[in-house]
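Expect chain and fold; see below:
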Amino acid sequence: MSLWMILPVSLPVLSITGIWVVYAMALYNQHVCPVDNWLYNQSCEEKLHLQSGPSFCCTLDNVPLISKCGTLPPESCFFSLICSTGSFMVVVIVLLRYAHVIEKHQNCVLNTASLSTGWICAAGLMMVGNFQVDNAKVLHYVGAGIAFPTSMLFVCLQSALTYRLAKTQEEYYLAHLRLCMTLLAFVGLVLSGVFFCQESFVLQHASAIFEWVFCVIIMLFYGTFAFEFASISGNTMAVLARGGSLGPAGRELKLETLVGMGGQSHPHQPETMSIM
């Protein structure tokens, strides 16, 4: 069992904990309203952070969207840190997953597309975290427009890739789990986007809740890579060192494994498989 499996587990643990800490800080500083608050007003006599409890007057500027929670200091600093760290971890996880697929199976369009979308998603997440919505709205929305669709596309590609490569019962169970998470994430993303465009206070608040649901599911999806990362070895790193291709030793090892699984092979089988 490889220690690399800690990496995909660490991403959801740190990211989910981090964004909830950001929310708690924003709530404590009265920069957003609680998620259980469904009452909003067109305007208030005082801004939220100047009000004293027990009840508060909230406007749509105080809807607890993740971006809103990380807009004002001091929580904005922590939000940027979480997004930057998460982006780096996504880049590493996606790259290792790409190399692991090549090592254990072979490269394919799904694997290459997953690498591309994963890295694009990381770039969008970096923009979201470092350009707060109230200070650089255009850049923030550009980053969100990149991160959300590409993260959804990434989990779709990985779910399809898991089914394509599955051979054992456990791998099929993992594929089923990823498919369920992908469907839930898709529903959350669609509802969040549709409700966000509405003028209704209730739907705007519902949009924030579905945004939280979507992000948590995506982070948990990355955590499922611990299953594959448990078998990462030096050969995986060798694939990366060779620019995404197996060396002669790696091809021999894969061939021996296939021959061992299939029994006696035709004398010309090694050359045929090398060509494939």
The two ends are 30 Å apart (CA to CA).
